[in-house]
Write a structure and sequence with these properties.
single chain, alpha+beta, seven-stranded antiparallel beta sheet, six-stranded antiparallel beta sheet, about 25% helix, disordered C terminus
């Protein structure tokens, strides 16, 4: 052991403190070590009341000795809307998994979303990755002091006029048409208490396109299994599709299904190709619900 090194619960806690830049706290009974710090760089109000960082605006990373690796990490980051996909990209590129994206408040201004991260590996890698994500968010916020309230893309037309044929071809099945928009639905299957649930019961991936061929939007819900989530997120983010929520819709299902909600802007065919690639990874196209135009 190096001089000055403090080992606790099988973890080099001095090194965790050094890498994260935060002095942590050991829970000896649980064998876990947690570092946390409040976020107050942007004023936040909830229902008109100024929210103290202590009331939930807290970045945290918890470490525990792994069974199959040196350590396991669970982390949570409170983020503003224009920070979420940057933080997610950095986390995924560093080898961490993104496990949830959700809200904790109503009537907050600016809006806040909480990103959950998970990882296994060396303490060095996990602590460094957590620090990197936070540093990138700080750099972005320093150069953009006011959180954005728009994607910054050209305004969408009031009436959609998409060319349907290329989208049907890319997605591999005819979509459902409505007022110049098109929706594709691909069913998946799971069981809850021995009852099979499929597309009609909401266990499906659905993506809807609107706008024009050159200025389109896609609103997507991708139903993925646990081992499909990380690669699906990477494909979407690498294509510039923004992730807006990651959560479950049911409890007690087997296999477990996680829903990834996304929102993308750009040329319609490019968006369709990105969604197609994500669906192919998620295995959600094998039982397509075909809707005749």
């Amino acid at each position: 052991m190096l001089a000055g090194t403090t080992m606790a619960a099988g973890l080099n806690i001095n090194r965790i403190d050094e890498l994260t830049g935060v002095k942590g706290k050991l829970n000896e009974a649980e064998g876990a070590y947690r570092v946390s710090f409040g976020r107050d760089d942007v004023p936040v109000t909830v229902d008109g009341w100024r929210l103290p960082a202590f009331m939930g605006m807290t970045n945290s990373a918890s470490f525990i000795k792994g069974a199959h690796s040196e350590a396991m990490l669970l982390a949570e980051l409170p983020l503003f809307e224009d920070e979420v996909n940057l933080a997610m990209f950095v986390a995924l590129e560093s080898g961490l998994s993104v496990t949830a994206l959700h809200n904790h408040f109503f009537f907050e201004h600016p809006r806040i979303f909480f990103l959950q991260l998970q990882g296994e590996g060396t303490t060095e890698h996990l602590a460094s990755s957590f620090r990197l994500v936070n540093d990138k968010v700080k750099e972005f916020r320093a150069s953009h002091p006011v959180p954005a309230d728009t994607w910054g893309k050209p305004a969408l037309p009031a009436t959609s006029t998409l060319t349907v044929a290329p989208l049907n071809e890319i997605m591999g099945s005819p979509g459902e048409l409505s007022k110049g928009m098109i929706k594709f639905t691909f069913g998946r299957s799971t069981k809850v208490r021995d009852v099979t649930l499929e597309s009609t019961m909401g266990i499906d991936s659905s993506v809807t396109f609107a706008g024009t061929d050159d200025n389109a939007v896609v609103d997507g819900q991708l139903a993925v299994m646990e081992n499909e989530l990380r690669p699906t997120l990477k494909v979407l983010r690498e294509a510039g599709i923004n992730i807006v929520a990651i959560h479950s819709h049911t409890v007690g299902e087997e296999p477990r299904i996680i829903f990834c909600h996304c929102w993308g802007r750009g040329p319609a065919e490019g968006l369709a190709k990105a969604i197609h690639n994500a669906l192919a990874l998620a295995g959600g196209r094998s039982a397509a619900k075909k809707n005749a135009p």
